[in-house]
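Appendix B. Raw example, untouched.
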Amino acid sequence: MNPFAAVGRAFITFLRTAGKLGIFGFHGVRHIFAPPFYMRLIGQQIMSIGYYSLPVVGLTALFTGMVLALQIYIGGSRFNAESLVANIVVLGITRELGPVIGALMVAGRVSAAMAAEIGTMRVTEQIDALTTLSTNPFKYLVAPRLLAATLMMPLLVLIADIIGVMGGYIVGTGKLGFNEATYLQTTYDFLEASDVVSGLVKAAVFGFIIALMGCYHGFHSQGGAQGVGRATTNAVVSASILILFANYLVTELFFSK
């Protein structure tokens, strides 16, 4: 019966962790809408999550669009469908690659930083000091990060969509021989509002997941420097997995028949 006991323990551990995460997320969201509001902290997180993530998200989107255009052209040439490059690039960037790859890059940068910062505060008892000073840790640490990440990720993804499509345009017109005006007109004609909206909704969900995982693992870290290291690793891994899982759910919600 030992194998069954191991499976049972793993399942119970999973349920316990999911319950703790759900309660943590509920308290974090509740404190977003409850006063007092630390506008300075929210502004700092908006700068950290949004502005300082622009270079990595922009470069990632640019090269993704360029590679996507090249690969579509090479694959489409096998059955004389090279003209579909502009259509598929704008569809792939706005629906999937812009939100997902952008969120994964932000998760590696932001979620790790949140877990490390809050984890250090936990192991050095600064969070306990906040409670002693009658400052709610959820209000002071968690809520500003959840709000800033949820608001800034759609803006980052919108910029990534523009840069990614521009990357495809650069390769399409500069290397593959497409006419500039025709490429832009095809992109404009094929793009629909639902493609962009679905990507922005995904971005908001991904932003919430990134901040939630960073705050949760940092908040529950223990064991000194090694515990903070584990929390940082777990935050990035769990955020990346949940991003891919949520991507499927939102795609199913928007595009299933």
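End of appendix B.
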